[in-house]
Specification:
Radius of gyration: 21 Å
Helix content: 10-25%
Number of domains: 2
Number of helices: 3
Strand content: 25-35%
Largest sheet: 5 strands, antiparallel
Length: about 160
């Protein structure tokens, strides 16, 4: 492990590894590509220092929720953080399964995946609407233009489909 004010990142791809160390955001050391038997992945060791991050404290509940979001948005990605593993095999389907109560769901979750899109939809018996939309990995809790565009496209698709029947 690097010295206390140093962060280190190691990347492994196809039997090759490279690492770099940073101090106060500046690159201080880096390795050349070296052979390894480690699995593909990236390891980051980061400890904030008081010089750059005054009065810093971790809010682990927030960090863990963000890591779950990344796991849901990247099905098959495994994230290890402080001894905990965050992993989702089925992406957004797993998100809805976790966030909704099975006894309140009116029909099975519809889960559609494509080359660059993933959608999971269901209908419950509760009052109001719940959306989990994401932009650049961030949950857009207030909706926004991406959610509005999705809702409009969904309504247009259903209307166009039924016009042609």
């Amino acid at each position: 492990m690097p010295c206390p004010n140093t962060s280190k990142v190691t990347a492994v791809r196809e039997g090759q590894a490279k690492w770099a160390e940073f101090q106060f955001g500046n690159l201080t050391k880096e390795s050349k590509l070296e052979p390894t038997r480690d699995e593909n992945g990236t390891s980051i060791h980061f400890k904030p220092d008081n010089g750059m991050f005054r009065n810093f404290r971790w809010v682990f509940e927030f960090v863990e929720q963000q890591l779950w979001n990344y796991a849901y948005l990247n099905a098959g990605l495994k994230i290890n953080f402080n001894g905990k593993t965050f992993y989702s095999k089925n992406g957004l389907h797993d998100l809805l399964t976790k966030k909704t109560h099975a006894e309140h769901i009116r029909y099975p979750i519809i889960h559609l995946t494509g080359e660059d899109v993933e959608i999971a939809i269901t209908h419950g018996d509760h009052y109001g609407e719940q959306y989990y939309s994401f932009v650049n990995g961030q949950n857009t809790t207030q909706g926004g233009t991406h959610l509005n565009a999705f809702r409009e496209a969904l309504v247009k698709t259903v209307r166009d489909h039924f016009k042609n029947l």
